[in-house]
């Protein structure tokens, strides 16, 4: 389960309100449809990128469902997830909380709308964070334990696949709690011990999950056990780096962004750059991926290192040549991130400030590009929005 990026809350609320107020356009035939059929149609609409239409159908299913019935529970969770997609977090939480009232311990089977999902969403959507998120994660973990025990009692091909899925979800929830104890609750006296017990259980449940190994690395970094962190990250990367792009075992985009940051933090910049190059091939509009790639190349320049492709094209493998190649490439990646930052109105000011700072430092060392149409304005913003990274230049991205 991934957390959708919240959109403008006011716009989402008004959009949802307009959808719900359009009830008069719904035919009498649809009004009388089975909630199960409506929810199937809603799922199809959501999968095809039409959340507004999905919301109308799911809301109708909820209206038609008998009180305290499985169809009502399924509809509540579905409407909640659609509201997450639309960015209306308050409405999403309202529906998930209603679902909790009907299935307080998550022991109702998922086929009847029960299970852990609502708890895990509430943990991620909590505005309070800290202990509030922890208690929702723990309820989700408890529900998943119950489900896993039932699946283990009835082994079969389908149950085996579901068991792997539930164990992975449980391990991720345990890691979610550990991450809270490394951040919001790091001041707690038993924070480090809680992290150790949580990651130990997560590794027992899903020893080959890339996300779990990343959390292990993050804990080891916080403990200044760098070599152990590096080993965990190598194991995480080895699990999927040679898989084709369409393989479902590959961690999601956000998880791999976090992986690249962790790799950079432990001095594994070449590995981080390989991850980021692959991410750019998947989504060349990611401001964060371009920024991290530029920063990663700048760190390589500090070490007088360069990506292998840059070394081969230059034909000069001296430390200074490697440094120059990385600096040139770094500046291009960072400029691309700044261009996209303005184009899509990205909101991370610290990212922009750091990218500008790095570019300005490199301009002082290697000189500004005379043939570049982009001029840095007085306020430090890039005025040209058409900067592109040339695929045949010295800083060509390595094929993933």
What is shown here, in short?
This protein is 67% helix and 0% strand. It has 400 residues and is an all-alpha fold.
Notes on the protein architecture:
Helix content is 67%, strand content 0%. The chain contains 18 helices and no strands. It has helices at residues 9-20, 28-31, 35-47, 51-64, 70-86, 89-102, 117-125, 130-153, 157-182, 191-205, 210-222, 226-238, 253-265, 269-282, 287-302, 308-314, 319-343, 349-366. α13 (253-265) runs antiparallel to α14 and α17 (319-343) packs antiparallel against α18 (349-366). The longest helix is centred in the middle third of the chain and has 26 residues, at 157-182. The two termini are 26 Å apart. The relative contact order is 0.05. One of its GO terms (cellular component) is anaphase-promoting complex. It holds the Pfam family TPR_12. This is TPR domain protein.
Essential attributes:
single chain; 400 residues; mainly alpha; Serine Threonine Protein Phosphatase 5, Tetratricopeptide repeat; 67% helix; disordered C terminus; TPR repeat; TPR-like_helical_dom_sf; TPR domain protein
The total beta strand count reads 0
SSE ordering: HHHHHHHHHHHHHHHHHH
**Poorly predicted spans:** 1-31, 371-400
The gross shape turns out to be: globular
Biggest beta-sheet profile = none
Note the beta-strand portion.
under 5%
Mean pLDDT: 85
Helix-residue proportion: 55-70%
Measured between the Cα atoms of the first and last residue, the distance is 26 Å
Summed up, the helix count is 18
Radius of gyration: 24 Å
Structural class: mainly alpha
Organism: Aspergillus ibericus CBS 121593
Biased composition (Acidic residues): 368-391
Pfam family, one: TPR_12
Biased composition (Basic residues): 1-16
